[in-house]
């Protein structure tokens, strides 16, 4: 086996991951946003089933938390589609 063939085989045998550090960073940020959204959505119930608690319809649970979940999902999609191997034009 010649030296050229050994170099070619060694390049083929190296496993290359699809995602890089930048992808995983954005994935963890997206997961954090989703988790924060679900945490903000929780609560607001009443201990007594005969008493209505209007806190379940406040801004945090109706607007802020679902928006954070959707932003987190968008960040996840971006993290998956991000190509860290792309060369930037200088």
Describe this entry's structure for a reader.
The structure is a single chain. The chain has 90 residues and is mostly helical. Helices cover 61% and strands 0% of the residues. The protein is built from 3 helices and no strands. Helix 2 runs antiparallel to helix 3. The protein is elongated, with a radius of gyration of 24 Å. The model has no long low-confidence stretch (mean pLDDT 85).
Salient structural properties:
single chain, 90 residues, mainly alpha, 3 helices, elongated
Helix content: 55-70%
Order of helices and strands: HHH
Structural class based on helices, strands and sheet pairing:
mainly alpha
Count of helical regions: 3
Low-confidence stretches: none
Give the amount of beta strand, in percent: under 5%
Q: What summary fits the major beta sheet?
A: none
How far the N terminus sits from the C terminus, by CA atoms, comes to: 41 Å
- Total DSSP E strands: 0
Number of domains: 1
Radius of gyration, taken over Cα atoms and rounded to an integer in Å:
24 Å
The residue-averaged pLDDT reads: 85
Write the layout of secondary structure elements.
Blueprint: H1 3-13, H2 21-41, H3 59-81
Task: Write a compact overview of the structure shown.
This protein has helices spanning 3-13, 21-41, 59-81.
């Amino acid at each position: 086996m010649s030296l050229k063939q050994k170099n070619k085989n060694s390049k083929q045998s190296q496993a290359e991951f699809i995602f890089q550090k930048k992808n995983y960073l954005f994935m963890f940020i997206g997961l954090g946003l989703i988790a924060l959204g679900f945490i903000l959505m929780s609560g607001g119930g009443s201990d007594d089933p005969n008493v209505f608690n209007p806190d379940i319809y406040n801004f945090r649970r109706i607007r802020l938390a679902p928006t954070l979940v959707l932003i987190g999902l968008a960040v996840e999609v971006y993290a998956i589609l991000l190509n860290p191997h792309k060369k930037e034009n200088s």
